[in-house]
# Entry
Amino acid sequence: MIPVVSVNPLAALIAVIINTIPVFISFDIYTPAVFLALAVANTILVSHIRVKEFLKLFMPLTTLPVSLFFLNLFFSASIESSALYHLFGFTIQSRILLRAFIIFLRSFTLIYISVSYLTAVNAIELVNSLMQQIHLSPRIGYSIYTAWNIIPFIGREITRIKNVHLIRSGGKRNRIKETIPLIVTILINSIRHAERASVSMYIRGLEDSGSKKRTFLHNSKWRPTDTIYAVSYFFIAFGLFFIIIKKGLFRFSLG
Amino acid sequence: MNYLVSLQDVSVTFAAQKHPVLKNINLIIKKGDRLLITGCSGTGKSTLLYILAEIIPKIIYAKVEGLILRDNFSTGIVMQNPMSQMVTPSVEEEIAFSMENRSMPLEEIKEKTDNAIRKAGITGLKHKKPFELSGGEMQKVALTAAVASEPDLLLLDEPTSFLDNESTYNFLKTLGNVSDKTAVIIVEHRIKKFLKYIDKILYLDDHGEIYLYEDKYAFLKNADNSHKLKPRFISGNNPGFMPFDKPIKRGNSCDSFISVKGLSFSYNRKEEKVLKNINVEMYRGETIAVMGPNGSGKTTFIENIAGFYKKTKKNISFNGKTLDKLKKREFYSSLHYLPQNPEYFFLYQSVGEELKDVMRITSTGYKPLFNFYETPNRSPYNLSEGEKRRLTLELVLCDKRPVLLADEPTYGLDFDAYYKTAEAFNRLKEEGTLIVIVTHDPEFAFFLSDRILFFKDGSIIFNGSPGRYIEYIESNKDLFPGELYLPAGLNERIL
# Structure
C-alpha cells in the first residue's frame, strides 16, 4: 500500500505504543473500537504496509480473538442478566455476550496494531533508526543484524545437519538419539557464530566507536514531519481517549 | 614505535588444555611486512593471528604469558568461516563497516566502498543480503571488506580456500594493490599461490617449534629437507597420482551407478533455479570433480544426489532405482556425505566416541590415517578447522561405503594430511568407490579425478576428462578470465 506520508520507523513505533496503551488498559467497547479506527486510518495514511504479507500473518492470528469470543460466550461463569438466546444447549446472557465481544474487540485491535506495524516497518531500518536517533549501542544493533542474518540459514542448516546425520548413521532412525546431536551441533554452531561475530565486530573497530561519532552509510533521518507526526498522533490519541473518559465510556482493566 | 606488534616469549594456553598452543613466540610485525604463516593443522596458526589482533585475550579467553607490545593501529581480517564475520544487513554495508566505525566522512566511505566493489568484481552482489550469498561469494565479500578499509594490519586466514579461479585471481590482484604501509599476514597451506605477495615465511611445526625465514626462498630450499614438506605445495610439481590424460569410463546408462536425469532445483518457488536440467551418469570406481564459479550450484548438486530434497528424488537413480522408490536404509547405508562444515558430521561429544562408533563396523586391519587415537577425550568441536576435517575423513575411511560425496574435502588440510587424503581417495577408487568431490582445488581435481563436471549458472557446461578440460579452457578463454592457478606444467601449457 502506498502511504500518503512516509515516516521514520521510530516515529511509527511511538505511534504504535501510543495506540496500544489505552486498548491494553480498557475493558469497554468504545476504546478498542476508536483506537482500531485510528490504527486503520494510520495504516492508510502513513504505512508502507505489505498487504499480502499482512493478510498472511493477520488472518491466522484472528482465530485467537474469535476463539476467545466463543470461549467467553459459552464457558463464562453465569452473571445475573437477561437471557438472550439458547444455542446448542448454552444460555447466552446479554452481559456475557457484551463481555465476550469486548474481549474479542480488544484482542483483535491489539493484533491488528502489532501485525500492521510488523508488516509495514522494515526491521533493519528500525534498528538503524534506533542506533542513530536514540543512540542504541551499535554493538547491540549489529548483534541484532547478525542474528537477523542467521535466521534464514537455520532452517536450511537444520535440514543439512539432519540429512548428514541420517546418512552417517546409515539411514537408521532413532528420533530421540538423532535429536541430541542435532541440538548440540546447532547450539555449538550458534555459540561459535556469536563468538566469531563478536571477533569480527571488535577487530573492525566497533568496540572503539561510540554511537555519536560513528558514521552511518545509510542515514536514518528524523525529519520535522516525523516530529509533527509523533506529536499530532499523541494529541489525537490523547484527545480521543480524553473524550471517551469524559463521556464515562471508559472502564479500566489491566491485561 | 617502529613496529605494530612485538611478541616476546609469548605462550598461549586455552582453558580446556594442559599444554600451551603457542610456546615462547618471538615475533615483530612492522608496517608493510608481508608474512606468510604455515605449518601443520592444530599448531596454533589462527591463534597467533588472534594474538596479533588482540582478540586473545580481549574477546576469546586464554592464558597469555610473555610480553606483548603494540602500537595503536587498525586491523582488517578474513576468517576461515566467512559467514561468521557478516554482521550487517547488506553486502554494501559489510564493506563499509570498518570505515563507518572509524568515523570516516560519508562521501569518502561511499567512494571507497564503490571502488572496492568494482575492483573485486562483485557489483551484482552490492545490495544482496549476506544469507543470499554462497560460501564462496561470502568469502569474496569478506576479503573486499577487509581490503577496502585500508587497515594498518591485514590478517588473512586461508582467504582463497572457497574461491573460484576468477575470484582468486581478482583477490590476488587486490592483494598486490594493498598499500605498502599495510602489514599483511596470511595463514595458508598453499604457499605457491601467495609467494609473489610475501617476503617472509613463519613455519610452525607439530612439535611447537617455530622457524622464521626472513628470506622466503631460504624456506623453499629448506622445506623438503628440514620440514619434510611435499614439494608440490612449494613448487607445484606433479605428484604423479594419476596419468593425466587417461580416458574416462563410459558405458550405457544401465551400467551407471548414479544417474541424474532432468534435475532442476530451486530452494523455494519464488527463487531462481539453482540447478537447471542436469543430466549426468556416474560409474563405479570413478572419481568426479565438480568445479565451477562460486554460487554455480555445485553443493546443491551433490546435496540432491545425497537425497536431501524430496522433490528431486525422482530425478536421481541409484543402482537403477530412483531415490523415491528406494528404501532409506538401502540408500543411506551405501553412501557417505562429507559436508563443507565438518562440524555437521559429528554425532558424539569426544573424538574417542566418534572413532568407536565407526570402528565397530570396520574390518580388522584398518590402518588409521591420522593420529587421533592418542587424544580420545578431546571434543571434536574443539579441534582446529584442519583437524576437524581430518577427523571427518578418518571416520569416512574407517566405514567404507560404495559412494563418497565430499564438499571441499581438502579445505584446511596441511601438507601431510592433503597427501594422505589424496592417497586414501585413490585407494578407495581402486576398490570401486564412486567419489564425487566439490572442489576449488585444481591440483586435487586434476590429479585425482577421472572426470570434471564444470558448473556455470546451475548448468553443466563441461563434462569430460581433465585433459579435455584443459583443451576446453584453451578454446573458451572468455569463460576463464584471469590467471589460471593450475599445477605447474599445466599453466605453462595453457598460457
